[in-house]
């Protein structure tokens, strides 16, 4: 008998009918003899609705109170699912993060899980109950409700699987696995049978929201077998695996990720002297703004232009700080741009192949897409481009790296 943790995302519990369907599915698993712990998200759209309510009161709501509120979305779905199971004769009980005691740090709206008390859940499992746990939430040492960041129910699922030493963590969603790129943008995207943790981490951190990055980190760290599947269609899904197969067939690129949530800032004409990068980025990081890509160009007149990207939510804050720095340093000007996007190619196959980046640049050049910034690591190449060319770029790269599905074999 196996213990399986199953996480169902927002669209999979988006209506009462769907919740009933999920209950049917869980019931079938139970009849097959497995013990099941279910993690659910809020009904689709609910978390956004709640955040909007808060923003009507204040542009920047107090994080502690925001967490008290947004955590209610998941509390509704756990109770509804438990009711639907009990109605079907399946013993079930629901718990909030606080009730389980999913202990987190106190970083409201982006808390990290520190510890999970699995005892209560183990007792319920022994008593034959299906345990339904609220995703996305926990409690800090002082008893404050915390949340884990958008998409955080994935992390609840994986962390519970690790704590309970489950045999598998299954992430059920509205696509039937992890694709070579977002199947909603590229119809010819293909489902991957497997992807390595390392690649999935890159994909998640570079914008593929199919799994929250912390969920992948957790699964890698605690060796939790992790699979992404469609909630209501049969199929093998995608296994996230540790092993990197050394096969000739392995594609150089496994996937393409993209992110629209970035903004670019440039400070022009700063003196090209030691310590410039620190003078600029020190105050930015002191303002709690995370910097992603950085480029510095030296001009002929002993001045330099310094460009970096930040999350779009941090743009106004970063711009203000940068204007202050510019005045202090006597820089020529500060320029901001929010109409950018980042496109990345990811694959462990890059390690053993030269020329991957130039192939990427060639494909973009053929479409006349200008590259504004570039960054590389061992298994990825990212470029910043104008946002309006994003979809074109993703499609062109998908074709250039031979990821397109054969005709008639597409996602939807
Ligand atoms: P859930 O509510 O179930 O957590 P999400 O919306 O968070 O679902 O994640 C699933 C979505 O992720 C898909 O609908 C798809 O549009 C998007 N997505 C982005 N990149 C990929 C990818 N490489 N493979 C599959 N889905 C992807
Ligand atoms: N409901 C939360 C969100 O919308 C958490 C999740 O769905 O994973 O981000
Ligand atoms: Mg999600």
TrEMBL record:
Binding site for substrate: 47, 74
Enzyme class: transferase
SUPFAM superfamilies for this protein: ACT-like, Carbamate kinase-like
Keyword presence, Kinase: yes
Keywords, comma-separated and alphabetical: Amino-acid biosynthesis, ATP-binding, Kinase, Lysine biosynthesis, Nucleotide-binding, Transferase
Transmembrane spans: none
Pfam families in the cross-refs: AA_kinase, ACT, ACT_9
Keyword Calcium: no
InterPro entries: AceGlu_kinase-like_sf, ACT-like_dom_sf, ACT_Aspartokinase, ACT_dom, AKii-LysC-BS, Asp/Glu/Uridylate_kinase, Asp_kin_monofn, Asp_kinase
Chain segments annotated as coiled-coil in the UniProt record: none
Catalytic reaction annotation: L-aspartate + ATP = 4-phospho-L-aspartate + ADP
A GO MF term: aspartate kinase activity
Annotated ACT domain residues: 265-348
Involved pathway(s): Amino-acid biosynthesis; L-threonine biosynthesis; L-threonine from L-aspartate: step 1/5; Amino-acid biosynthesis; L-methionine biosynthesis via de novo pathway; L-homoserine from L-aspartate: step 1/3; Amino-acid biosynthesis; L-lysine biosynthesis via DAP pathway; (S)-tetrahydrodipicolinate from L-aspartate: step 1/4
PANTHER family on file: ASPARTATE KINASE (PTHR21499), ASPARTOKINASE (PTHR21499:SF3)
Family: Belongs to the aspartokinase family.
The protein's name: Aspartokinase
